Records
---
Amino acid sequence: NGIGLAIVVPSTQSLVADLTEDNNRRTAFGWLQLSAKLGPIIGRRIAFHLVAQISVVVGILVRLYSKDPRFSDTDGKGCRDQILRWSLVSELKFLIKETKSVVIIPSF
């Protein structure tokens, strides 16, 4: 907390002071202080949970709607048919197996 906050707090206050107009500065500092005090009340882990949920949604959307240009059908031979297509269940089983192999590694 000590060294990190000693670096971050003055720079954020300077940034807020530089980016706001004189008549809006007190509101900006109020929001800055509110977020600094409200964060520990809500819990520091909430940020990680929110990022994880957003990442899952984005991953699903990418899986559903993106196309890999390496496997496009440009030569007319239908190379998409040659790709091994996993079902959703087999992909989830593979991901769970890989996740377990990482989680069981002692970290301390």
---
Amino acid sequence: MYDIIANNRQGMGVKRTIFTSKIRYSKYLSRTTCCLATSFNLSTIQNLLDNRDLSPVNMPPKCGASENCSLTVDVILQSSDGKQLGAHSKNLELFTDAFPVAGSTLPPHDGEVVKLTESAEILRLVLSYTHNTPPPDLSSLDLDTLLLLGEVVIKKYGMYLAGECVNKEVNLRISNSPPLKILAYKTRVSDFSLIDETARKTMNNPLEDALTILDPSVFRVWILYREKWRNSHTNVNIIKNPLPVWLTGLRDLEAQPNTLRK
């Protein structure tokens, strides 16, 4: 009997020892697993931080008109040369005729951009006219860029105040610029200020140049204009009775008129 009890106690002691060992092992596994999990999470987070993409493509671009603009950028424009410029739908609505009313269309998806055919230089100038700020100085632009800007703001985006600024700068350059380019621009944007003065400066340009630069319909009008202009100047310069003029010239040269009659 005692042997049985002793054996049972001994067995219970063994079981208790085994059970205690299991508890300790379980706690060890828990601590190890917890440490591994914590280490894994920190490592994963660190990798995410190290490998995060901070390129400008994933960040909203700044306002294309001014770096100091505090308005929220809700429209992203992409130029023909791949540059992205921030814009404001409300400003585009107020200052242009080409963009829809703000809020009338579905909001763009994250990262969605509006691709345009103008270069970044032209788009920045266009956006500068969509803010209540002084207009940009156009005097430093080359002629081709200036004329392209005028066509874009007037014909494509309907920005007539910006168009007036461009037209004034163009008029200041008439005397020092290729007149055929100026004439072609004025006819395209329907700016008839100083157009007669511009056309008269093209009268001695070769036909090949006019055919290349002017639109076909404008070229036909230009041909008729030049023909009438040349006829009027030819008739004005005709001397009906050249004898007095010749005699005066000959006297100045101390020549003998009678010798020329033989």
